[in-house]
Amino acid sequence: MLNFSKYHGLGNDFIIIDGRSDNNEDYSKLAKEICHRNLGIGGDGLIIIKESHKNDIRMQIFNIDGSEAPMCGNGIRCFAKYVYENDILCKDSFIVETLAGPVKIRIIKSDGKESIIQANMGKAHYKGEGIPIGDEKGFINKEIVIDDTPIRISTIDLGNIHTVLFVDDLDKVDVDKIGPMIEKHDLFPNKTNVNFCEIIDKQNIKLVTWERGVGKTLACGTGASASAVISTLIHDTDNHITLHLPGGDVDINTENEDVYMTGPAEIICKGIYL
Ligand SMILES: N[C@H](CCC[C@H](N)C(=O)O)C(=O)O
Fold first, then answer.
1. What start-end ranges are recorded for coiled-coil regions in this protein (predicted)?
2. 214 Cα–ligand 1 center, Å
3. Domains of the chain (ranges plus CATH)?
4. How remote is the CA of residue 69 from the centroid of ligand 1, in Å?
């Protein structure tokens, strides 16, 4: 029997379990079971709270296929709301240890069901494990052929590996077909998250993300952050930009070296998983 809470960030939904007293739980197996939309509680991922010896607290995140992701933007906003509202951390700014490194959190507003939270997503890295080593600019605007069609992709590591491509009309893209073809492309030994972007203007981008180990989601925080970085780099969009996702809007600020993501986190329910 497990006590759980369910939260979402713009429709990217997560099951959160306090694992600070767990010792040998197989979270990969648990994620596959508990995230199942019919046979489990249902969610895009499983988030585990752990003690940290380096920072204030530690977050583990598992995809629905059981793989452990280094970071999760929408997930860390939900995690932050949980630890703040359950008095695990009695302060409105703190640092979360993740596999992608420390993430600075600031609770901007939290007075009930929904909270607004800012996360410092760190710096975008152009080289890293699972990312092909390109020129000094990294893997930017590379032409590959997908489904017999030449496309241009850019891949960066913002805690998670994200591949970004730009389309003229998002509504005409078969994300369910093209997404997995790029996710599992030979270029990416560790697979990749895939972000389909349509630039509206210098301050607004429409985005749909096909997530590694999950599939198409209503929102992706690290995907929004990576898309903002690449869009500024290639299409000279503004440093302060709004990403319009199927589940709602998220603000990304890339004016400093670090990328700041600000968005909502909402509790859905609490319960006991048998
Ligand atoms: N939904 C998450 C991304 C999870 C990334 C995960 N699918 C991976 O394997 O990298 C977000 O809001 O950033």
1. none
2. 8
3. 2-120+263-273 (3.10.310.10), 139-262 (3.10.310.10)
4. 7
Pocket residue to mutate for ligand 1, from 190, 211, 259, 261, most atoms within 8 A of Cβ? 211
Question: What confidence tens digit (pLDDT) does each residue in 93-137 have?
Answer: 999 999 999 999 999 998 878 899 999 998 877 665 556 554 444
The DSSP string of 13-39 is EEEEEE-TT-SS--HHHHHHHHT-TTT
| Residues within a 6 A CB radius of ligand 1 | 12, 63, 69, 72-75, 160, 193, 211-214, 217, 220-223
197: left (phi over 0), alpha (psi -120 to 50) or beta: beta
Interface predicted TM-score (ipTM): 0.90
Nearest Cα neighbor of 223 from 186, 259, 169, 190 is 259
